[in-house]
Amino acid sequence: MTNQDLYKVAEKRAKAKLGFYIHATVYVFVTVFQVGIHSFTTPDEMWSIFPALGWGVGVTAHYLGVFVFADWQIKEFLIEDEMVRLKQMQEDVRER
Question: Is residue 95 part of a domain?
Answer without folding.
Answer: no
